[in-house]
Amino acid sequence: MLNIDQITVSYGQAPALVDVSLRVEQGELVTLLGSNGAGKSTLLKTISGILRPRSGRIAFNGREIHNAPSHQIVQAGVVHVPEGRQVFTDLTVQENLRMGAFTRRDHQAVEHDLEFVLKLFPRLKERRHQLAGTMSGGEAQMVAIARGILSAPKLLMLDEPSLGLAPVVRADIFDAISQLHQQSGLTILLVEQNAKWALHVATRAYVLENGRVIMEGSGQDLINDENVQQAYLGY
Amino acid sequence: MESSLLLQQIVNGIILGSVYSLIALGLTMIFGVMKISNFAHGDYSMVGAYVAVFLMAWLPGWLGWVGSILAAAAVVGVLGVVTERLVFRPLLTRWTDIDIIMVSIGLFILLENLAHLVFGATPRMLKDPFGGAVFDLGLFSTSQLRVFCLVFSCVAIAVLQLFLNRSRLGVAIRATSQNRFAAQLMGININTVYTLTFSLGAALAGVGGVLYGTLFAISPVMGAIPTQKAFVVTIMGGMGHMRGAILGGFILGVAETLGGNYLSMAYKNAIGFMILILVLLLRPSGLFGRRQ
Questions:
Q1: Which among B171, B172, B186 has the least Cβ separation from residue A74?
Q2: Where are the domains of chain B?
Q3: Least enclosed by CB within 10 Å: which of A27, A139, B111, B253?
């Protein structure tokens, strides 16, 4: 579904990603591990067309997207839920969700998806008319994910969805992500600092270090790997 | 007698303020979405006013007035697109805010001199399409034209608010001004939003210019005043805040007319800046702005 072929991305002179190749197949949940500054967010931003690779190719369902403007990439079905939620603080929850559906014309399906996300996150239903900026971190994260689902993703990219959340709320978010993958069959590319859980739910996983992919395998393989255990699982 | 004079002044101030609001709304919208402080903004008003001068010479009365407003919105809207594309867009990603301010001052000088060349230096007045008819309500009176100005500004402000709050594109404009990055991830084409916002903001100044021209003389150098007023109003209301700009416009209009009458007419234009200094000292993020 998503094929990344040897992309290199730089901020000015500083290289952020070097010859990174990665693929995500239909129905997979692929986890991307890596320490701070390893280039995970850079990779997601490059996929969604916010940053441009200096070399290499990105193809989605056979179509090259690495030179496409970001709005076309969203329309193609690649949806990015960014780190730090990035909700529209002065819009209501409902307006935020509607912005998720900005590119869509299939109004009935949008209404259907709206119902779906309000079932997935019942708390948002009560707060539909509240400004998103007045919500707690966990609620804002729910808005961000729900908004992403309203973009009708074929591939949903989640960047650090549990960052800074209290354990109870984090469990809610994890449940929702598992549900999206297992019950709704959504293809997900996940960047998550809670490596134990992220590897556990993953079909496959990659480890990114200093802008390079240094390891790749099934979730279980990586859980059993000594280096991964030391660096990310804290054994 | 005293209270009727006061009332009269307040009414005049509200009418003037509605025009300030309209022009400042354009400025604050452009700033909110694109972070451009455009010092050439008042020149859009100047161009709008000249559109009215020529159109009203052709079409007298009513039709000329309404037609002027529509034509000013269209002409200045297009001018907004042209300046956004040719002047501001190429600078947005690479230049700093100060650079962009300098460029906008350059644009201001350019437009002013072009206007000198094309329209000549002689100041012009717009004819009153109502032949100077007056509304007399006992306590105060005002010309029908001025009442029309007020009604029209209020309608324009209300329509703009409806557009920004209810329409998909309007909400996208607000979303972009709040979080450009997230807006891109929603599939909003930022460049389209920029062009639309700039064009709309300029058109508001253009329409404001026609209304301004019904109150004051029209000349190539008139643009500086609406620019100054719009900046005072925008900073007073909080840069990028719509409601702040609306309320700020009315506050400035009333403060100026009252100050002009009870303090000194000579200081009328200084009053705005006194308010500006006070706001910057006491509440730097503006009346509606969030404290940092």
A1: B186
A2: 18-227
A3: A27
